Fold:
Amino acid sequence: MISYLKGALSDVETDSIVIDVSGIGWQVYVPGQVLDRLPAIGDPIKIYTYLQVREDAMTLFGFLEKDGLDFFKLLIGVNGVGPKAALAVLSVLGADDLRFAILGDDAKAIEKAPGIGAKTAKRIILELKDKVSLDEAFVHLSDGEDSLQPSEGANEINGIKEEALLALTALGYSSSEACKALNGIAVTGDMNVEALLKLALQKM
Structure:
C-alpha cells in the first residue's frame, strides 16, 4: 500500500496530477477541490493516496489531507459507490461539508455531484451516518479558533452541543450553518443550551 507521495508537482491535468518522486512520475487522480489548491508546478507537494488494484489497471487517488482520504475510503465502502463517484462527491463537497450533509440528512447537497442520484445520496447518508460523529465535525472544522473539544464532563458537553445543533436546525438553519456557528465557542460544564444558542445566534 502506498500511504502517500512526497515530491515535486510535475503536471496538472483535468482530473489528475503528476508528482515527480526521485525521477519517477506518479499520476494521481484527485477531486476538483484539490486541483483548486495545488502549488505551482515544480513546488513540493505531499498527497495522501489510495491504490486501487484491478485486473487491467492500478490507479492512485489522492488528497491533500488525510481527512479527505479517510472520507474517500468511507464513500467507496458504500454499496454502489466506486472511486470515480467518490471523487465526484468530494469535488463538490469537501470532507467537512460532506460530514455536515450526512449529519443533517441533506441529500440534496450530495446530489449536486455528477452521476449521484437521489437514491445513491440517501444511501450514502444511511450507511455513513453512524460512522460520522458530531464531535468530529467540530474538530475538523477548526480554522484557527478554539474548536469545541471537551475536556472535563465530555458527555454533558457533547449533549449540550447536540441540543444546540438540533435547536438551530429547527429554527431553519442548515446543519452546516449551525456547525460553523457553534464552532469556536468554548463550551464549559456550567454552560446551558440557552447560553450556547445565544452565542451561536450572535454569529449567524
In short: The chain has a mean pLDDT of 85. The first strand starts at residue 4 and ends at 12. The chain is about 45% helix and 20% strand. The two ends are 44 Å apart (CA to CA).
